[in-house]
Structures
1.
Amino acid sequence: MADTFTVGGAKKPRWSVVREHPSAAVSALFILVLLVAGTVLPMPYDPRMPDPFATLVPPSAEHWFGTDSSGSDVFSRVIAAAQVDLGLALGGTAVSLLVGVPLGLLVSSKGAWGERSVRALDAFQAFPLLILALALVSLSGNRMSMVIVAIALINVPRYMRLMRSEILALRESRFIEAAYATGSSRLRVMWRHLLPNSLGVILVQTSLTIANAIVIIAAMSFVGVGATPPTPSWGSMIRAGAENMAFGQWWVAVFPGLFVFLCVLCFNRIADALGDITSVRRN
Amino acid sequence: MSTATPPETTARDDSAVPESSGMASRSPARLVKLVGSRLLFAVVALFAVVTLSFLLVSLTPGDPVQVIAGDLATEEQLDALRTELGLDQSLWARYVDYIGALLSGDLGTSYYTSTSVAGEIADRLPATLTLTVLSMALAVIIGIAVGAAAGYFRSRWQDRILNSGVGFFQSIPDFFLGLVLIYAGFFLLGWAPAPVGQLDIIQLPPPSVTGFITIDAIIAGQWSVAASSLGHLVLPVLTLALVYAASFARIARSSIGSALNSQQVQYARALGLRERTVLRYALVEARSSVLTYGGIVFVTLFGGVAIVETVFAWEGLGQWALDGILGMDIPVVQGFVLVAGAITLTVYTLVDIAVAWLDPRISHG
């Protein structure tokens, strides 16, 4: 009963999705605005321009988020950093998705080969992945492309594991058995039944991966790897402001931290909504 | 093809009942075989991890000698240093040396401090383990309690409140939460000790017996030191526990929630079984995914503790590895990868065995 997957059956008009998940819709809007704001909207100050006469100014009408210890406008930098951080996160996630899902399908085949690949995957997961990612980027001399590679390295095994566990569970279902019984080929079962039925899981995972990538990228630049000054990035801004926290100048670190938090919250909300939508349709 | 084996409907339904032990798949022979293959795998995987990490740090383009010697070093000094560190030899010779030394328990020496990597690890592991194990324990308690409650009250107001709390802590990066807690607990409220290290600066660590400062202090009867070390643990443990409890609660909520919606639970409800019994069935059904996720959380925690250690100047294994990475101290990075890999594999092996024992439906091949 719960096994059937009706793709076209219970389709509702699109706006009802927005109405039923207002927080996810607002989240998506927020992310879109952040992505374009740096280029489209005029910034009050040049994000890379220090001003030695206005260092560590608290938030005011002139500097909405205050200024940091070099006198750069925190608001302008936070907005400029959005494109750097979100761009890297989206890029890394896209690579993870495009590599991870096909590989995941591949290792879900029953038999010695799939089992062996998943063992290799497990061995790979024994790496401390954050340390591995940091080492990769740091040793390559802080190349931005290596940040994306590092994000993919962390997340491809996750996609593969997820796909495998989802498909191993699905394969025990009656309808898969029925599909085989009516003579469907393995490829057809994979394409027509297994993949569509894991679509919800994949979508949710993708949203979560973006959220996770944002945190990893912020963590990297927090310790001084990846996007580092003068390139504006949330992590390096938090790092710069960490010292100021001690003297009560909270705004330098709190605003970039808040934006990391908001972005992650948004993608988590979107993931929640995607989970709700897909599991509703599954019933 | 064995894919289409008739689904063992009865076994599936029985698995919700903990007393059912009549299944052939939970036989001791199967478990012994599983344990054996897992242990063998763990050893092979650790070897693979060590080899991969060696290749990784050796083949990346950066030149550690240049970084260590600094920009002012002459060509002769660089060559001398290269010879001293053994970096003038071929990759293969270095690999054979490294593995040979590893087998005799020698993890090499740090490029900077010339201290033995194994010794440094032994010194620092207790600090990191204290942090990770306490954080994990707290995260599990909070996570399962919150997750089970949210799953039980799914879609009701209790769930909404709990879920927004979970969403909050899941979205906040741990290092940032650490900074906020330092700001609140130390600067604003003043109840937390200065967030630098494991003890107050004026305090001497107790004589080392176990290496765990709190335990050593208790053994030596130095109660003020023990109290101070506990005080220093509060903020970092709270930071890690809140963040990881949130991700734990999420999985607990979804697996317990879906277990409560499953056919056997609906059936149990239809039979008029007590709510407590129904909840117990659901917990039993959810336990393998919760357990699997617990393993993953612990491993992530151990790998991710480095940055929180930096925030709190904890001087543990993670912070040491992070400094090693930034300074291209290759033996240090490899030493950390080895320890983290060993801990990860141990945890995954234990989880795999436990899950296979708890849930005979899952076949591993």
2.
Amino acid sequence: MQSTISSILSEEDGCMLSYILRRLSHTVLVIIAVSLIIFFSIRLTGDPVSIMFGAGEPSQQAIDELTAKLGLDKPVWEQYFIFMKDLLMLDFGTSYRSNSPVLDLLLERAWPTIALALGGMSVALTIAVPIGILSAVNKGKPVDIFGRIFSLLGISFPNFWLAFMLILIFAVKLKWLPVSGFDSFSSLILPSIALGLILSGILVRLIRTSMLDVLKMQYVTTARAKGIREWLVIVRHAFRNALLPTVTFVGLQFGGLLGGAVIVEQVFSWPGIGRLIVDSINQRDYPVVQGGIIILALLMIIVNLIVDLCYSLINPKIRTGRGDN
Amino acid sequence: MTRAIDTMTTKKTSIVLQFIKDNPTGIIGLILVFSSIICAIFAPSIAPYDPGAASLGHRLDMPKWIDDTGKSQYLLGGDQVGRDLLSRIIYGARISLLVGLCGVAISLTLGTFLGIVAGYFGKWLDDLIMRLAEVQLGLPFILLAIVIMSVFGTGIEKIIVILGLTYWVSFARLIRGEILALKEQEYIQAAKAIGGTDFKIIIKHILPNVASPILVLATMCIAEFILLEASLTFLGLGVEPTVPSWGGMLADSRNYMTSAWWISVFPGIAIMLTVLGFNLLGDWLRDRLDPNMKV
Amino acid sequence: MKKYNWLTMLLVCIMLLLVACSGGTSTENGNKNNGKSSGKNPATTRGNELVVRVAGDPQNWDPIDTYLVAWSTVGTSVFEGLVSRSLDLEIQPGLAESWDYVDDKTIVFKLRQGVTFHDGEPFNAEAVKFTFDRLLGEEGQKGPQYSNYTSINRVEVTGEYEVTMHLNSIDPVLLTKLSGYGAVIVPPKYIEEHGAAYFDMNPVGTGPFKMTDYQRDKQVVIERYEDYWNKDAIKLDKVTFKVIPETATALAELQTGNIDIMTRLEVSQAPSAEDTDFITLMDVATPTAYSIRFDTSKAPVDDVRVRQAINYAIDKETIVKEILGGYGNLISSFQSELSFGYNKDLQPYPYDPEKAKKLLAEAKIAEGTTLDFFIPGTDGTFKEIAQAVAFYLEEVGLKVSINSVENTTFQSELIPNGEAGHMYKNGWGGWTLDFDNTAYLMYHEGEFWNPSYKNDEVEQLLAKERATNDSAEREKIFKELTEVLYEDATEVNLYSEVEIYAVNKRVKNFQPPHDGRFRFENVTVE
């Protein structure tokens, strides 16, 4: 008995390991593809040298020298290989605009970016978990309908408009919260709400569906039959099991949130990575764009991989490569 | 005789009423979506003024019903160059629906195709397509937008293409997942066993089964695309200012929010109602067609 | 049925709430007698310091690596040049107490004594030489500032507090250029010790304030330098520049008292700002000019009659009055009236649609001919102007197709390559306040900003102007040049920008700068 289990486990482990290895090798390929696309497409959009000279009257010589200094005089393929070689040694290059190492720029932004992502996620969960559960439990009743409309309202406004409205109401009119910036905990609240409202719309839907699935299950009925109090049944038995898809979603969204909050960052003067990348695209600061996007892509893929692994641990069927969700 | 007819109509009415009562969100969604479609189709006959007729004299005129001076002739007021806001909002439905519908048409076609290929044929094709999806997700939407627009110029058709090309992933993933579940079903195995070609199986058995989740996702995508058009305009990548688009009106009015609130609030309400409409509709469709769907 | 009613009620409530929230703010602001809450000035609790909103920061503080006004805004308080340009745009002694032209190409500067850099290093002739060697040497040549100073051959130390500047060629605008950007004096020892990369982020100069904190895209803090040579004029302890890219957000910050001075208030925001009790608006003419430039290589605007017709067809006065709320000055050449070389005798093209139609008929332009008009997608105000222009041109039978494009592509690709349609938005800062730089870059054949315009007469005048230091002579040449350009209608000159500053009333003696270079001498707060 004991030996059969361990033999199964080791077999499983071997299978698991090769699965992880396969996925990791794919990750490398994906990163290479992402880097290729960014590297070449950003070079289609215009020349940083002319932007760096701005309103001056540069001589051709000065233009050539700066081009050479930035390494832009070499054939594009050669530039790409140099970039990838440096990348392997974790050297992301130097920003054109600020002359600082790209990694420093990204690390400067890491904390505000993560803080905002966590803040947005917390707001989303705070709103979505109760509404999602109540909606599911009271399916078809006014609570359900109200909850769903409320959650859909959050995703029915353009985010910048919502952000300005939040500022006008809570900062200018009621003076409860700071308008913008990243100075204190209270300055995190409004941007988190702006971000969280959007996420909660989707989360409510997800939690409600998962809860409905679970509530139909045998063990919930059994628990009820045992006379356990209704709210205990819901929280302890049903919600716990509905948590898995929620966690998956939160995980997947988190990666996207790190780079995807550009507009919220812009409106709230938030020094995050999204704004850095967009500013750098606008200034054609190639190294920052390349470095920033590759790091974000890597983060996203790793999160994706972890989510998949968690899934396959729970449900071995997926491991053979069948089904991400 | 008359009595019989009477009861029949009451019966009919009560069925309709019962339906409305059972599906309030769906009905609201339908009404909202339907009215924006009506606005889009019949814009020239509904709009009281020419949406392009600027006249600086009527710049930022207040809505007629709150204007005491009697200067304003526009029901919802005038915009930054003195055009009728109401007419522009009515015409704006065209742009928003165009962006939403065409964008979704592109991503749906692309995503469905790739999703079927990945899910049905599996193996290396599946790997390839799923990794392609990761590449796509790794590329920020804004970057793609700037690249396409700086190489090909701006315009509504570019916005549609960008949205379509970016959002295929959601469709592909959804469909792939559905197919993986379907493939193990007995009747598909049976169809294969009796020698049905892959093409036939896909058309006859697979597509009808994935149609409802696709429909749900598409409805919700339309809502998202309408909002993304606004976001692009906010970042300076939107349609030309002469084109009456809700997103454009909203983004360009942000500095008037407190001084001429109407040019910001009314397009905001228009966009909110339409997007809410599509979202409600999608939500309702999902409940009816595929309650286990996780979108 | 009950459920349905309940739901409708809910929706209506939400909508009403939304309208009330957004509408409520404005009616309150719009109604002065409404006993509004903005009566108390919330910024008075702040100490002897000032908070200024800026739209962006230059990312890099080395004076030879920048050309941005954002640099000057802060840099002027940290660094000083040999001469200084006052708020009234007068050239005054700066780090040089006096200067003398020995001949057209040699200037002797007598330096101020007892000046120190913020790190304690003494300022002397060696520091001046180091600065210009750096600017004109290998390091400076890779930056954008070098090209502004190519007329300088070398700087020679002729005493501990005296330098002699030798020029390659006559440069009539040299002095004003010495007041800022690349020519501000930097500390030799500090840079040698710490390296250029460190200096980028931790700049040290001789100015009235030293930079004590810089967080990219967030804020810059400068504090009073106690050993400043003119320290009695500096009353403030500290100035914080907050980076707030969105103007709507910046106004909200001002209305809640978190910032004292907001730069670049949009015309559209002026009414809301004015309605707050403790905010006052200040406006100031700037050297920035805006025009609609023609690409003269493209038919039909290759015909001077068409270009003139378009000039007559657009009612610039109404545009400035209505869209800019009067915050703009009409101009007749592509420079602001502050600029040396502005021809006051030349009146802008009057609004005369009949004449425009006649000229178009003469040029045999068919009704409904379409012109491509390119504008950057980020400029809200110009979008409105472009639509008004389209409206005016339609009145004389021309169709305009407005293309709003991504900003950087527009400036770095489309304009220089002649791909910006028949006409495009052209804006120019003119920081030297002299037509020389602008005219040369705009009309000299083959310049980056001049994709297609060629005119021999203009070339001759430009060459003649650059060959003399004599202002009377130069003024005469510019008069002629502006007339030639006016007749040739190279662009529709729209207006020179009037920048609006919104300022908290607790700030006293603040004078908004014409050129974006903040000066805090004598500024106090309550």
